[in-house]
Structure formats: structure tokens, C-alpha cells
Specification:
The protein is an alpha/beta fold. It has two domains: about 170 residues, 3-Layer(aba) Sandwich (Rossmann fold); about 100 residues, Transcription Regulator spoIIAA (2-Layer Sandwich), CATH 3.30.750.24. It is built from eleven helices and eleven strands. The strands form two sheets. The chain has a six-stranded parallel sheet, with helices on both faces. It has a five-stranded mixed sheet with strand order 7-8-9-10-11, with helices on one face. α9 links the parallel β8 and β9. The longest helix has 17 residues. About 40% of the residues are buried. The model has no long low-confidence stretch (mean pLDDT about 95).
């Protein structure tokens, strides 16, 4: 039997977790926390309307060993406002910096990774239609792409407009809908590689996760600004890419100082790149003729 969706998550994943039933959401998050504790991950749970004490009681009632985990420093529950609305306003850079510090702290403390579990209800206070939230979520992929952390962002479908949820979801490599079944898997996984410097992609890259892929690729270009060797993008695990994804790769090759070398490029993706003129881009290697 397949495992529930929450048990499919791995370090390196960044998931938009939508829900419309509080009990089902809390049951899933309790399992996420319990698995993390068992796997020697540190867990930071940023709670929304539910107070930290009430959330700990809820987790404990669902069989999560919260007392021992809190005492050992493995589990921390804090109000999301402390991170996202510090000083009374949302500062994306400050928020990302605070969470980046938590990733480093978990590593320094000897845990195998950090699970960030976040109730995003605080974002309802932002100006409607503002793109700050989508931009933040896209840049948050930089926190997890090295595989040192995972981030699960909870969005209540009863409170967030559908259009905003679609925008926010596209800033995550994967989204789990409220009715996700046991056959659910993250649509896209992006993992940073260091030798050689690059990315490994698994799954499907399309409109549902375009902002996420663009942000990860952009961060890699920034990191490789002075690299003397081509950035290596491993597509061997990619089963589908749309034309916009192919376009991002072509533009990245034009921008990267030393170009981009594609590994495992399937014939179908090569044809798509060819239509976009990839054969005329000197900085793009590895496209199958």
C-alpha cells in the first residue's frame, strides 16, 4: 500500500499544502512531525491562529512525543508572526534570513536536517493582489534546494482566493491539494549539486511550478557568476518540460558566463529546445541533435 502524501516528502522538498478541513490538516502535520522526529530531523513549526501551547497539546494527543522532543531541542513551536511580521511588517529578506539561520542552527546542533512546517494564515493581512508573497515563496526555494531542509507551507483554501493560491502554488515545486490521495508525489524536485555545480531535476516542470524553477535557476546563475566551468543541469529524471521551462534554460545559457551543459536531455525535450533556437546558443551544450 502506498504511503500517505505527507510521508512522500524528503529533505529538499518545498510544498504548498492546501487544506479545507482542520482536523485532516492537523492529522497530516502530526504525522509529518512524528516522522521527522523519528528520522532525527529538527522540526520548527510556525503556527497561525492556534497558539503554540494548544498545538503542542494537539500533537501530543495524536501520539507525537512532544515533551521529549521539546526538551531535547528537536521540536520548537513558535507563532508565525514572530518570523514573518517582526517589527510589525512583512520583510521577505528578513524572514528568509531568519529561516536560513534556523537551517544552519539545525546543522550545527547535529540534526540530519530541518523540517519547516508553516501555517501561512498570517499572509491574509498582506495587501490583496500584492506579489510579495509569491516572490517570497519563490525565493524560499533557496532554503531547501541543497537538501538540508524541507518546507511545508499550509494554505487554507477557505480563506485564500483561488487566483492567489494558483500564483503561490507556482512558486513551489510541488502542491498537495486537500484531496491528495496515496498516489500523490511531488510534481518536481530540484536539488543543488556541487561537483559539478548545477541542478538535478526530477518529475515535471510546467506552469504549476514555473516560478519555483525560475527562482532556483536564477539563484544558481548568481552563485556561478564567476565559475569557469559550465553549469550542469541534469534532466535525466525529468519526465516532462513545457516550452516555458525550455525557454528558461535557453535564456539561462545565454546569461551564464560559462554556459550550461545539459545531461540526460530526452529527445522530446531536445526537440522543444530546438524549436526555441537552442542550436544557435553557443553557451548551451548537451542538446540531442
Amino acid at each position: 500500500m502506498s504511503a500517505p502524501p505527507v510521508e512522500q516528502l524528503r529533505l529538499g522538498d518545498h510544498v504548498c499544502w492546501t487544506f479545507d478541513d482542520d482536523d485532516e490538516r492537523l492529522a497530516a502535520m502530526a504525522r509529518l512531525v512524528a516522522v521527522g522526529i523519528n528520522d532525527s530531523h529538527k522540526v520548527l513549526y510556525l503556527t497561525g491562529p492556534m497558539r503554540p501551547e494548544a498545538l503542542l497539546d494537539n500533537l501530543d494527543a495524536r501520539g507525537v512525543p512532544t515533551g521529549r522532543a521539546v526538551d531535547d531541542g528537536q521540536l520548537a513551536v513558535r507563532p508565525a508572526d514572530e518570523v514573518y511580521l517582526a517589527h510589525g511588517e512583512f520583510d521577505p529578506d528578513r524572514s528568509l534570513g531568519a529561516l536560513r539561520d534556523q537551517v544552519s542552527l539545525a546543522r550545527d546542533e547535529g540534526w540530519k536536517g530541518l523540517r519547516l512546517v508553516k501555517d501561512m494564515a498570517w499572509a491574509l493581512r498582506l495587501e490583496p493582489g500584492a506579489d510579495a508573497l509569491t516572490s517570497y515563496e519563490a525565493h524560499a526555494n533557496r532554503l531547501v534546494v541543497d537538501g538540508a531542509a524541507m518546507a511545508v507551507c499550509q494554505y487554507d483554501r477557505r480563506l485564500f482566493p483561488d487566483a492567489e493560491l494558483r500564483r503561490v502554488a507556482s512558486a513551489h515545486p510541488a502542491a498537495a491539494l486537500a484531496d491528495a490521495g496515496c498516489d500523490w508525489r511531488p510534481a518536481l524536485r530540484t536539488r543543488r549539486t556541487h561537483d559539478p555545480l548545477g541542478l538535478a531535476l526530477t518529475g515535471e516542470a510546467d506552469i504549476s511550478n514555473r516560478h519555483a524553477f525560475a527562482a532556483v535557476l536564477g539563484a544558481l546563475l548568481d552563485e556561478a557568476r564567476d565559475a569557469s566551468q559550465p553549469i550542469v543541469v541534469d534532466l535525466s529524471g525529468l519526465t516532462f518540460a513545457d516550452s516555458a521551462t525550455a525557454g528558461l534554460l535557453v535564456r539561462a545559457a545565454q546569461t551564464a558566463r560559462s554556459g550550461i551543459r545539459l545531461v540526460g536531455c530526452s529527445p522530446s525535450i531536445s526537440r522543444l529546445l530546438g524549436v526555441l533556437g537552442a542550436g544557435h546558443v553557443p553557451g548551451l551544450q548537451g542538446v540531442v541533435a
